[in-house]
Amino acid sequence: RAGADRTSLASALYVLQSTGDLAEARAQLALTYGHTGWGTNRLVRVFDMYGRWHGRMDFRTWVETLYWPPGQGR
Questions:
Q1: H/E element holding 36?
Q2: pTM for the full model?
Q3: Cys-Cys with 25: which of 16, 18, 43, 48 at CB 3.0–4.6 Å?
Q4: If we measure between CA atoms, which residue out of 55, 45, 46 comes closest to residue 21?
Q5: Cα angle at 55 between 54 and 57, to 5 degrees?
C-alpha cells in the first residue's frame, strides 16, 4: 500500500496539532484514505489512549509526559 498508513498517521497528527479536533484526526485513519487497520491498529490505539485526556491536555504534552513518561528511555 506504499505508505498509506504512515501518511494517514502524519495527516492525523497534523490535524490534531493544528486544529485540536480529535474526531477529524481519527477520520484521517479511515479506509477512504487507504488505511485499513489490518496489522496497524496500533496507530488508531494511540488516539484511543489519548481520547480520555483530550480537552484537558494537548496531544504533544500527553505524548511527552504520559504516553512516553520522562526517564523511560526511547
A1: none
A2: 0.74
A3: 16
A4: 55
A5: 70
